[in-house]
């Protein structure tokens, strides 16, 4: 692991203030799910993994929903790589993506359906796909499906 540091304290401070929860895309999806009568829990700890949380969890149906930011999670369409301190950023963002994959594998192996969506996806489409997955799980069709 690289021990390099962010290029400046100003950059570090600005990045640390980025919202980790209750982002606009996440809130939009939650509002649609709630309006449709779907009840869920927020920021649920991933069982057996410290410092990891599920953005939107349907615990009885074991459906975990993650709303991933394009920059932080490596969206193939919108991710950018900073030019300043490029090696540090490459390693940081690669670790984020590896952590996402590890979390997904862990949840799937524990019987959860994991749905990952990008922040740029239409909230209505996301809410529909989440509701369909929850319905499948609640009605006994326990197949694993990854959307997004």
From TrEMBL:
GO terms for biological process: mismatch repair. Coiled coil: none annotated. Residues 1-24 are annotated as: Disordered. CDD domains: Vsr. Residues 1-11 have a biased composition (Polar residues). Residues 95-127 form the DUF559 domain. GO terms for molecular function: endonuclease activity; hydrolase activity. Belongs to the Vsr family. NCBIfam families: vsr. This is Very short patch repair endonuclease.
